[in-house]
Design a protein that fits this description.
13 helices; globular; ABC transporter involved in vitamin B12 uptake, BtuC; mainly alpha; 317 residues; two-stranded antiparallel sheet
Length: 317
């Protein structure tokens, strides 16, 4: 086990380049960097990207341990598909437009879809002795497929003029103006991240197996439950604001483990830092790769994450 000093030095090695990316990204773009563009467009966009990427990577790192599946990521739960279904329904029915504080109707419907999916998956996976991880995985995949079919039905029924807005949202992106979306993100994101952070000491034991973890005094059922809830809340918060952005929660934790080992005092915070920097960098590249247009960041993360996913599949075969 690493000493506290070694842990601090390792995390500092992640923090420095991440800060460099975050500080440089607001000045990247096809448009001239005026004060208004900087403070009302670029800075909130970078802040949103860092929080969203960090949350997805942290959730992915925790889920890979509790599900004992190297290919697990936040969207494995099916929560993102429920959020996407809620969002496209809100876009299809503009007459349902409502707002609560910083939350728009699309965000509210997306959160509702995430909540319904999360609740249904929990009911399907719950057992007297706790949550069944195999059933959790199967239920998440099934809910994701069902929501995907319902999304196609909504798109089929929607007016052609609305399809562009739906497609744009489903691609995932960070195009925001001002700090309203950040305010909408935090009420669900912070509790989710807090639940995941509290399980940091237990995940090291759990990575050695459930029986050994129980022998070390870990309440395995409680860890499963809180990781599921924390990852679900964090994913729901991110998806409701950015749309589905895939692969961040898959490739970043594996990168951290390859670079720094399996000590979760390193893996979880380093995944948050690297995940945030990775999404910020992808978004910055998306602003210039097809300039003056802007490519949704979700496209770039998929282009990078897809080959990595295939590499992991082949390596684990």
């Amino acid at each position: 086990m690493l000493s506290p000093r070694r842990c601090a030095l390792t995390l500092a090695a992640y923090l420095v380049p991440c800060l460099a990316v975050v500080c440089a990204a607001p000045f990247v773009g096809s448009a001239a960097t005026t004060p208004e563009i900087l403070w009302m467009l670029r800075v909130p966009r970078v802040a949103l990207g860092f929080l969203a990427g960090g949350a997805l990577a942290l959730a992915g790192a925790a889920l890979q341990v509790v599900l004992r599946n190297p290919l697990a990521e936040p969207y494995t739960l099916g929560v993102a598909s429920g959020g996407a279904l809620g969002a496209v329904v809100a876009i299809m029915l503009p007459g349902l437009a409502v707002a609560i504080g910083p939350l728009s109707s699309v965000q509210l419907f997306s959160l509702a879809g995430c909540g319904l999916a999360l609740g249904l998956i929990y009911v399907l996976a719950r057992r007297p002795q706790g949550i069944s991880m195999s059933m959790l995985l199967l239920a998440g995949v099934t809910i994701g497929i069902l929501c995907g079919a319902l999304i196609m039905l909504v798109r089929f029924l929607a007016k052609p003029t609305i399809l562009v807005a739906m497609e744009r949202w489903v691609m995932g992106g960070l195009d925001v103006f001002g700090y309203r979306d950040l305010a909408a993100l935090l009420p669900f994101l912070l509790p989710g991240l807090g639940l995941l952070a509290l399980q940091l000491p237990s995940l090291d034991h759990l990575s050695l197996g459930e029986e050994m973890a129980a022998g070390h005094g870990v309440d395995v059922a409680a860890v499963h439950r809180e990781v599921f809830l924390g990852a679900g809340l964090a994913t729901a918060a991110v998806v409701s604001v950015t749309g589905p952005i895939g692969f961040v929660g898959l490739i970043v934790p594996h990168t951290v483990r390859r670079l720094s080992g399996f000590d979760h005092r390193i893996v979880l915070p380093a995944s948050f830092l690297l995940g945030g920097a990775f999404l910020v960098a992808c978004d910055a590249a998306a602003r210039v790769v097809v300039a003056p247009a802007e490519m949704p960041a979700g496209i770039l993360t998929a282009l990078v994450g897809g080959p990595v996913f295939i590499h992991i599949l082949l390596k684990r075969k």
